[in-house]
Amino acid sequence: MDKYDFIIIGAGMGGLSAANFLAKYNKKVLVLEKHNIPGGLVTSFQRKGAHFDLGIHGLYELEEGQAIPQFLEYWDATHIETVPCRGNMACYIDGKKYMFRHGTIREDFEQSFAEYKEDIDKLFRVMETINKEMFSGTEAPEPPYDMNLLQMISFGMKAKKQKPMFMKYGIKNAKKILDKLTDSEELKAAIYSYCPYPMVFMAFAYQWGVFSNNEYPKEGMQAIPDAAVKSLNRMGGTVKLNSEVVEILVKDEQAYGVRTKDGDEYHGQVISNASPQYTYQWIRNEEKLVGKMQKAIEGKKIYPSICAMFIAVQDTYDFENVDCITITGTQDYKLAPEGYNAENAPIVINVYPKRECDKYRSLVALIPLAYEYQNFWQTEAGKVRGEAYKGLKKSVEDVLLNRIKSHLGSEFTDAIVSHELSTPMTYERYTYSQNGSFMGWSAEEKEYGKYMKQRTDIKDLYLVGQWVFPGFGVAGVMASGYYLAKEILKNDGIDLKKDFTDYFSGK
Description:
Layout: E1 2-9, H1 13-24, E2 29-32, E3 44-47, E4 50-53, H2 67-74, E5 82-85, E6 88-93, E7 96-100, H3 105-112, H4 117-134, H5 149-162, H6 164-170, H7 174-181, H8 185-193, H9 201-209, E8 214-217, H10 223-234, E9 238-240, E10 245-251, E11 254-260, E12 265-272, H11 276-281, H12 287-297, E13 307-313, E14 322-328, E15 347-351, E16 361-367, H13 373-378, H14 387-408, H15 410-415, E17 416-422, H16 424-431, E18 461-463, H17 474-489, H18 496-505
Helix pairs in contact: 1-10, 1-17, 3-4, 4-6, 4-9, 7-9
């Protein structure tokens, strides 16, 4: 048994962020990760001469002065070298190809949908204004659950006054806003194709606002967690890989440590980077409290899961500066993910920059097929992946690949070296993200903004990551680590917010 100030379950970016902030202030921190690499959804792997990320293509927040490099700099982490993602999008709608190019996106929309120029003007004006209001330079808000009634009223009044377009359009469901702004089914499909999930319109405004203006780490997304682990080690923190937590130790309604699958026991306050559903399952006693906590999230809707197909392609195929390919239909934006199958689900293919050490170009195709698809992917009791699961997975992979080939043609087909499909079950197994969710809780109108607290009903047990404030995205989960550390460090009279602000205002 070893004693620490804080034990963090999971080396995802939320857990690594909290660990770094706490270690910077001399807390003794241990991070336990069930796999052999850190990063959670921000990891990379090698397959047959190609380097793959788990689906994140580029990050706007990796640009200089943005959240991710600021966090890394504050921890004195290694600077991450990036390459710009400035490619174009090839969008197939019911088989017809449209091209949207870096730097001329609005003009390309107007040329592609000439009859709907007025709709396009309004649509882009709304999205541009929403983005300006979101990035207006205002101070990041405190978690809404920490505001008293007067603060919440004041915040709401300011938001309505300072961000009228965001309030009018941004926090409404995308389908509702698209139907309001245009009658063109093709135009709606084009906007929806870039991130084909049911979300508030603000998410689409953001995605198109940073379209082709992202950065990608030269060494792949794995460079981000690797830098965080190195900075944590320099500050005296410890990361133990291949260490799977199976129990959170609780006595008298207070967490005091964890036990791993290997039987090792570590004592200290506990921070979980896993989804709350898994976190609560690891508590063996305190049934009444756990039941209360489980009931509180019982009706909360989870963000849709995804499948990902990892495809390696020879250099004989020329992508002609296209780094995103979407395949969709005019009815897709009207459907919930439960209505998709392998034949009709929209497909988003990210084409990654080729690293010097790679033999082939890597593509990751993302497909929103539900966690419950065909009776939970034909898994057996206990989510066991047997022969029926393997058969269904192979069948889905074949259908999806044939759909991609039919759009990209024989030259692309001949250039394919390898392909491999992962299902929502895969994502859940590797990340302890409930239902294989890629973004935590649902980002639809009825659920958006209803954040969970990072403190649980059990003393000294905290949550971090995409399931708590401020929500999903790499920058978002890293910010969750900042917000949690800020609250914890208050107990020692440390004002992390002031220190962080002063550090960058003095540069």
